[in-house]
Automatic annotation (TrEMBL):
InterPro entries: ATP-dep_Glu-Cys_Ligase-2 (IPR051680), CP_ATPgrasp_2 (IPR025841), UCP005522 (IPR016450). This is Circularly permuted ATP-grasp type 2 domain-containing protein. SUPFAM superfamilies: Glutathione synthetase ATP-binding domain-like. Residues 70-449 form the Circularly permuted ATP-grasp type domain. It holds the Pfam family CP_ATPgrasp_2.
Length: 473
């Protein structure tokens, strides 16, 4: 399957936006690059930039492999991508407000009502709750891939919308910090747009959505605790924003207001950037056995005395069975044509699509509609006959639980491997922030499938990361 090469044209010429970097790379002795790679690993390990892998018998934490060859995006491509991402997240926020209020899009028949109202991520408790700025997804991590079009150009596609508790931004920031430390001369030679202001931008957006009439809102980051796979990121973002990192036991509710226990006494909390799933936020409203949340939080939230980022109930909009309708949301709410395309998607709950999927499993990627992290999926071209037969049985029993998509030839970017430099498949997760306006820092987290020919970029499945450079000119 032919794929788009980010660095080279079809006739192996270096693309214009990579020219300066490629020239520098050719001049680097392999031993010098290897030494830099070892230095990066040592620093990452010393700082504690790790990722917990559930069910990993080898240990609870490991480093996410870091590649030193940046993914470079020219300014004109970024402007198009940025506009498309802002458009998409704006429409998704309209959709979330609508389904918890007037449900115009359901009555108009643009999205099947049962797909929303019977969705496991739909929260009836949110119906009629009006949020500041009408923002539900304050932080969205949108997974974007590039595939070669019929004309030989690289075209961006949105693969997934992550609106619940999207992770990975700390690796974007630390990758940039590492590259600037290892190769300061490269940043002097290239006009690379900065990303270091992300924590300031995030704090600004969180303050934007504080309950009304607050001049100096108190923001906290709520973590499930140190055993969570993304705990490093929770602590990192709290530290970078200059706010408290709290667990559920540090909070309590009194008279429908949320307070934080401090050594100076109780302090009111106005905005909670929560990295805890809906079900565990409040044992009085959701799972009674949860010890991760704060009893009474939902009541304070409904009363408008505290705001949560992201909002409870955002998961219905990043469900893979809702994903195919996002282009229609853009047309319905914004009156615009989508700037970024979806990947063509078959909903297995539809009989005609189900027949097609079962007949073409060896060619397709099949995903669970509630799945994440690369789990619960079948990559047809890489699967054995036995795996395909087993998955077909699962789909036939519960077709509503699955979607299928063509196997995209994800674009490749060079990475440093033991034998030298070789292409590997990549995706991109930009982080879109919504408050009084919608903003994003230039770039995002580029994830890399480290195995030759592999299309699985997820960190939990052994993928790596690299720095993403957006050129300012």
């Amino acid at each position: 399957m032919h794929h788009y090469d980010e660095m080279h044209t079809a006739d192996h010429a270096v693309r214009a936006h990579y020219a300066g970097y490629a020239q520098w790379l050719e001049q680097q002795p392999p031993s010098a690059l290897q030494a830099k790679r070892e230095e990066a690993e040592l620093i990452f390990r010393r700082v504690g930039i790790t990722f917990a892998v559930y069910g990993d018998d080898a240990g609870t934490e490991r480093l996410i492999p870091f590649d030193m060859i940046p993914r470079i995006i020219p300014s004109d491509e970024w402007r198009h991508l940025e506009a498309g991402l802002k458009q998409r997240v704006t429409a998704l926020n309209h959709f979330l407000h609508d389904i918890y209020h007037d449900q115009d899009i359901l009555r108009a028949g643009k999205v099947p009502p049962d797909q929303v109202l019977d969705n496991a991520q739909y929260r009836p408790q949110m119906h009629g709750v009006t949020l500041p700025q009408q923002v539900y997804a304050h932080i969205a991590g949108v997974d974007v891939v590039r595939a070669e079009s019929a004309e030989g150009k690289g075209e961006f596609y949105v693969l997934e919308d992550n609106l619940r508790v999207p992770s990975g931004v700390s690796y974007m920031l630390e990758n940039r910090r590492m590259m600037m430390r290892l190769f300061p001369n490269l940043f002097a030679r290239h006009a690379v747009a900065p990303v270091a202001h992300y924590p300031d931008l995030l704090l600004e957006k969180l303050r934007d959505v504080a309950p009304p009439a607050l001049n100096e809102p108190t923001v906290v980051v709520l973590t499930p605790g140190m055993y969570n796979s993304a705990y490093f990121e929770h602590a990192f973002l709290a530290q970078q924003m200059g706010v408290e990192l709290v667990e559920g036991q540090d909070l309590y509710v009194e008279n429908d207001f949320v307070y934080m226990r401090t050594t100076q006494g109780p302090q009111r909390v106005d905005v909670i950037y929560r990295r805890v799933d809906d079900d565990f936020l409040d044992p009085l409203a959701f799972r009674p056995e949860s010890t991760l949340g704060c009893p009474g939080l939902m009541q304070a939230y409904r009363a408008g005395n505290v705001n949560l980022a992201n909002a409870i109930g955002t998961g219905v909009a990043d469900d893979k069975s809702i994903y195919p309708y996002v282009p229609d949301m853009i047309r319905f709410y914004l009156g615009q044509e989508p700037l970024l395309s979806n990947v063509p998607t078959h909903l297995c709950r539809e009989p005609e699509s189900l027949r097609y999927v079962l007949d073409h499993l060896p060619e397709l990627v099949v995903k669970e509609v509630h799945g994440a992290g690369g789990y619960g999926m079948l990559v047809g071209p890489a699967a054995s006959k036995a795996e395909i037969a087993d998955f077909a049985e699962k789909i036939e029993i519960h077709p509503e639980r699955y979607i299928a998509q063509p196997t995209l030839a994800l674009s490749t970017c060079p990475i440093l491997v033991e034998a030298g430099i070789a292409p590997r498949h990549i995706d991109l997760r930009p982080f879109v922030l919504s408050g009084k306006s919608v903003s994003l820092v230039p770039g995002g987290l580029t994830r890399v499938a480290l195995g030759e020919g592999s299309l699985v970029v997820n960190s939990s499945q052994g993928g790596g990361t690299k720095d993403t450079w957006v050129l300012e000119r």
